[in-house]
Structure formats: C-alpha cells, structure tokens
Design a protein that fits this description.
InterPro entries: DUF6624. Helix content is 32%, strand content 11%. By secondary structure, the chain is an alpha+beta fold. It is globular, with a radius of gyration of 14 Å. The chain starts with 8 loop residues before the first helix and ends in a 15-residue tail after the last helix. It has one domain.
Length: 84
C-alpha cells in the first residue's frame, strides 16, 4: 500500500509494530511500548536497536528519544505493580 500511496510510511510502521508485538516478535520502529514510571515510557523490544533511528527516519518518524519524551501523561499508577 505504501508504494501505491494508499497509506503513509509512518502508518505502515505503526501497523508493522502492532502486529509484531501481538505476535511476540521484536518491533522494527519502536512505536509500541508501556509506561514505566512518572512521565516515562519505554518501547517494547526492538530489532537491531543501533539502527532504530535510521529506520524511523526512513518512514518519516522522529528519533526515538524525542518520541519517548512525548509520553508525559504516564504516571506511576499506570505501571503494573509487578514492574514497580
């Protein structure tokens, strides 16, 4: 769908990661994660983390550190008790 311009590369990245996480595989673009503390969010496992920002840039996504900083809504109440 991306080559046909029927969806954006960014939308593809989010869908790819959602499917990967659901299938218990490492995600490619670091779009899916969880709150890990007060105003702190972390992506689930990512394949080849050293190349993450390059992959994100290739589909028009901001660097991972900037993306993680957006999640200011995270609170300690959102962290499962087993992870505190």
């Amino acid at each position: 769908m991306v080559p046909l311009k029927e969806t954006s590369p960014g939308n593809y990245a989010y869908l790819y990661d959602r499917v990967a996480v659901a299938e218990k595989r490492p995600q490619r673009y670091g779009t899916q994660g969880r709150c890990i503390g007060d105003k702190k969010w972390k992506a689930f496992e990512v394949e080849n983390p050293d190349q993450l920002d390059a992959r994100r840039a290739s589909v028009g996504l901001m660097p991972q550190a900037e993306y993680e900083a957006i999640f200011t809504f995270c609170t300690l109440a959102m962290v499962p008790p087993s992870e505190k």
